[in-house]
Amino acid sequence: MRIKAFEAIHPPFNRAAAISSPPYDVMNTEEARDMARDGLNSFLHVIRPEIDLPAGTDPHSDAVYEKATANFKRLLDDGTLVRDDAPRMFLYRQAMEGRSQIGLVCCCRVQDYVDDVIRKHERTRPDKEDDRTRHVRAVDANTGPVFLTYRDHDRMDHLVSVDSSTRPLFHFRSSDGVTHTAWAIDNTDPYAKIFEEVPHVYVADGHHRSASASRAARDIAAEQSRDSIEGGMESDWFLSVLFPASQLTILPYNRVVKTLGSLAGDDAIDQLRTLGSLHMDADPEMERAGSFGIYLNSRWMRLDLDHDSIDWDDPISSLDVSLLHDRILEPLLGIVDERTDPNIEFVGGIRGTGELADRADAHGDAIAFSLKATTIEQLLNVADAGLCMPPKSTWFEPKLRSGLFVHALDSTKSSGQVLSQ
After folding, report:
1. What is the DSSP letter of 123?
2. Which of 122, 223, 245, 299 is most buried, by the most CB atoms less than 10 A from its CB?
3. Geometric angle at alpha carbon 13, from 7 and 14, rounded to 5°
4. pTM over 0.90
5. Alpha helices by DSSP H, 78-153
6. Which CATH number fits domain 251-393: 3.30.70, 3.10.20, 1.10.150, 3.30.1760?
């Protein structure tokens, strides 16, 4: 596994709170426009540039990517963003609701992604991958980091503990209640040497970002008549934050189905009872694998599947999202492909089960499901098996903030020294 330092583009650190933003994919255009309304220098103007174009503009039109290019250049030209004159790495800590995670900000090699040294657990959607690739090419930079994880490493923990005991570059609390802190690492060799020993890291969040980084690297190499993306050019690397697996928190990814299908009749409860033990007026927060909270007819209930009917040795079919799909969503509600069916909505666990009930009530003839969160060990096991989870299996919280660190691809420049061979 290879990592390297990079000449980071970032806000002046005393302005990091005002300029950085949530990631591009946790809001719609109108929400982004509202967030950036009073902030000409918000990084949202780079990652959601359609907010500066007339309402109704196709978010995938050429004008949007051209605006991203112009906005990024403007922020660099006016000093809203600055570029380091020497490569380094960073430690980035996020704290939320009494827990924290601290990761290494660096660049990972695209070839390691291609070779499955960096393992995935999710399929990408072509339209989203196309969008992110066009955005990367438009600004010639990775504007948002890929959220990676690795199995805990004692020497890495020690290094991080020592280097995070110094004075931070910034420390602020964002409007979502997350505290963000970062430290610079100038002596990066010890980190690179440790990752030489790490056989695999895993994409936790950011499958479309990593896939687009890979596509951009190969496209640039082809344009430059290069056969290799082994690391000789800056575009052969992509921006990442590497976290130890034990520190990560996965929340449930819940579902709302807007029409009831075969569950619309008077025998809906009887149909659900055939699947397991049904408990009325139950707590919607799920703590037990193989159980679902079900909101139907303005009432919460809990369905406990028969545990003997579940193949717990199968890393995919034993996931709660798979059990829900195989036992209820497809046979009873007609949801065959959750990625494309317009009858299903996904609600991140950060929004709570109250949001599920509200959405179901708003749709009227609807049903909502709350699930137990997928565990990090399940994610690693699926990735190690070379398999992919069903869509919307994991919701990581907190999300990585955008604009704190940007990696310029410098398409016409070499990458300089590779710190891990």
Report:
1. P
2. 122
3. 165
4. yes
5. 110-114, 126-139
6. 3.30.1760
